[in-house]
Amino acid sequence: MTDVVIKASNLSRRYDEGSGRVDVLNGVSLDVSRGERLAIIGSSGSGKSTLLHLLGALDKPTTGEVLIQGENITAMRAKAAGDARNRLLGFVYQFHHLLAEFNALENVALPLMIRGAKPSEAEARAEHYLNRVGMSSRLSHKPGQLSGGERQRAAIARALVTEPCCVLADEPTGNLDDTNSGMIDELLTELSQDSDTAFVVVTHDIALAAKMDRTLMLSDGLLQLFEG
Ligand SMILES: Nc1ncnc2c1ncn2[C@@H]1O[C@H](COP(=O)(O)OP(=O)(O)OP(=O)(O)O)[C@@H](O)[C@H]1O
Ligand SMILES: [Mg+2]
Question: Can you tell me which atom of ligand 1 is nearest the CA of 50?
């Protein structure tokens, strides 16, 4: 097994869909090691979500490629890329993307159900991760009945439930108070140490970034080491 879980080379993304051409990334290369906790910071509109979507096979780069555990997800068709995402990655979206008609437990169990897990096992594991994010008393609430921070924590549990080698998280603590934010931070540290899970976390939270192993700043379409 390789010690580099994500290898991205020369990524660029051009948006050219009628609203005028926008070049967001300008040849970004990035290696993420097993168990590493990496923060990505940068101003609004600098391309952080764009980069995370490319790393997570949710979008295709204009140039460059992304390997996850040695598998070239950029070369895959949509179906294979979706399968690879479910097998290899956890993704926390900036705007959570929980399914409105399912409750918290069902939302978190869903990635395991997609893999064909038995419902009872999927729900047991979902409950475990909802406990870990302090949501044990909200299992049967639907997203519309949860607070913004609770939705965010459910989305984090959903990304962790498959115990992937790498979790990509877009502003995971954006709606959280200090206590809950600290709990998430401790959970990431524990999983990176005990399970070798790598984390790539986009954040505006400098306190969170400071606790990571490495912080990179996205600016002018390129990543630079940030030593704030
Ligand atoms: N589908 C699209 N079509 C055209 N332009 C887009 C599209 N998606 C994003 N952009 C532009 O690309 C730039 C980067 O967007 P992105 O969402 O990656 O920024 P971000 O760093 O995540 O910002 P924020 O901190 O506000 O979440 C923005 O200027 C945005 O307007
Ligand atoms: Mg964003």
Answer: 18
